[in-house]
Design a protein that fits this description.
Layout: H1 6-26, H2 32-35, H3 38-41, H4 47-61, H5 70-81, H6 94-119, H7 129-142
Length: about 170
């Protein structure tokens, strides 16, 4: 046996009646003062008001578009595709600021590099060409890496040499 209380019956009645009420509410045009100058007012509107206006427009667009007013069509298009939020125009002189800050960062980096180089110790004595040639001879004498290295037959590489001659 199915029992329903009076509150359940009310809920069922309102659930059935709600879509019809929503349809009736969405068939009325949105007032012109609400949509007037929407391009200038949109950014300053509270988020709740923006959401309500967009939902009302969305409900109106679910119906026949021939019934939409010109103001509603313009407002719907501007809200959907207008230059606001992530599509807003970049601030003036943004490119110059980026170039300036990049130049400053590169200049500071170069200054730090130059300061470090000026206070650094001289290169070690093992970085001379003579020392590196002696290292090649030592490796040949030890028969180091006999398959592909300095000791291999027919080797044509530089081996350990990476510095210019002393006079250069």
């Amino acid at each position: 046996m199915l029992r329903t209380t009076s509150t359940t019956a009310k809920v069922l009645r309102t659930a059935v009646a709600r879509p019809a009420a929503m349809r009736a509410a969405s068939t009325h045009a949105i007032s012109k003062p609400t949509l007037a100058n929407i391009e200038k007012r949109w950014e300053g509107m509270p988020l709740q008001e923006q959401a309500e206006l967009w939902m009302a427009l969305r409900d109106r667009m679910k119906e026949n578009w021939a019934e939409l007013t010109l103001h509603e069509k313009k407002a719907a298009y501007w809200i959907a595709f207008g230059p606001h939020g992530p599509r807003s125009e970049p601030p003036a002189n943004e490119g110059r600021k980026v170039a300036l800050y990049t130049t400053i960062a590169v200049g500071v980096s170069f200054a730090i590099f130059a300061a470090m180089r000026s206070f650094a110790n001289p290169s070690p004595h093992t970085m001379t060409r003579e020392w590196q040639e002696a290292s090649n001879e030592y490796l040949k004498g030890q028969n180091s890496d006999p398959f592909t290295g300095v000791s291999s037959p027919g080797y044509k590489g530089k081996g350990q040499i990476q510095s210019p001659p002393k006079g250069a």
